[in-house]
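The data are quoted verbatim for reference:
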Amino acid sequence: MALFDKLSGGLGGFLNSGLAGAMMAGLPTKLQAALASSPYGDLDGLLERFREAGFADEVASWLSEGENLPLTREQIMETVDPMTMGDLAAAIGVPAPMLPGLMAQYLPVVVDKLSPRGTLDMPKL
């Protein structure tokens, strides 16, 4: 257990570091490219999948001003099929088991930052 705590603490420190900030800066472009070859097609398609799965309020909160409602790692895993999750992880460059947790943590933030006027403003590929 102590080893897991050290590893997860180290990962948490990394994700909160300046290097993680630099990674986050490129994440929208990587995410858009990864989604382009997925069943969702783009970030709008992924958000529609979350709406269909019953998370319309969460998605709406990410697109609007105010607090972003969270999704859990488990909710992400229930919404995105495992094969697509693996493909997205490979395209983004993270281990597949980590992606649902990273999506739970960062997807609301990324969508919020890409929608200052309530609609997505995705970078061009």
